[in-house]
Write the structure tokens for this entry.
Amino acid sequence: MKSMKKFILLSVCMFLASRLCASDHELKNVPEDFIGTYMPVQMEMLLKEKMSYQEALYTIANSSYDILSLEENICYSQVEFMDGYAVKAEDFAQWSFIKRGDERFILDENGLSYRRISAKKNDYDAYAEKVLSIIFVDALHNRNISIRGSEVTIYGKKYHFNLTPTYVDDSGALCLSNYVLKIEGLSANIYEMESTGKWVYRRTNKIVQTIPLFYWNDEKYINLSASKYQSSKKDLKMLRNLIYAKHGYKFATDELKKIFSDFDWYKPSDDFSEDSLQNFEKHILENIKRYEGKKSRG
């Protein structure tokens, strides 16, 4: 009998505790038009700056929510990052809600802003696709690279983007299935990973795939600098041919034909002329020639 009373008392206490906990996180006056999934605006900026999901995620970890899923009476954060929790009602009471046309923004209790990326709750596919579209912004000009939700297809091979950080080593851009993608010069390499313990992996030296000309687009083109790539003979060669490809130069070698024909911006032309090169491009080519000369002498 005593054990039964003890069990009942424990059950009542657990029930009351759960109700108390629920009331701490039960939200009132949630704007119906703002329900959905949100990404920190700072996260978007950091992804563009660092071109690394893990670095961006760790940078904001101590200052903001990683992701928000706002529902009718509760708001979750980081649900699929293994340490999910609900936002406290007292914190939510300090939030502001802002409309800008079709866009929706939230300002949290610390004044940090979040942009809605989906009108669905817990839309982690939309979150993953947003991250991938930023990291792969240049690579998506390659006809053999595509993104759908958390899946990216690279030259016929499909990879799943892991939202949960499991990679501990140097600054890899992001984890794709059991691999890590790392931007290196004008290319990105996909390395195999190996386990070092539960949920923890490190990059090996085995490259399973290389994506050429990964990190550039029209906006970046005018700011390209040969000095950034002077330590790599391969990158200097790629940069030199990139400038010619930009003006429709028809390459003689199968290697360069294959690399550039995969990009939607490359339009080979019989009318190519050195006179079409702009001054900044001629300056880059002069620097490339100088750096390549140093390497050949070295």
